[in-house]
From TrEMBL:
Name the UniProt record assigns to this protein: Uncharacterized protein
Superkingdom per UniProt: Bacteria
Amino acid sequence: MDFVEITSNNRFFELHPEKIAGVEYESSSIFFPKMIKGTKEDVLRVTGMINDKSKRIAIAKAKAKAIKMRIKLL
């Protein structure tokens, strides 16, 4: 499949229904016949960021360490 086939007519979401962050519904739009309505929790679930507190803490600590090292270099 090429890029046009994958991105046309919601083909990507047909191939990967687990990537839908919410509930799919039909709209009256000519350009967007299918829409998705979801919540913040749906997006966090799909992106894998829910219940990932330790990963976020580790990233924050790494950023703090990088800032501290930059300050020492000044």
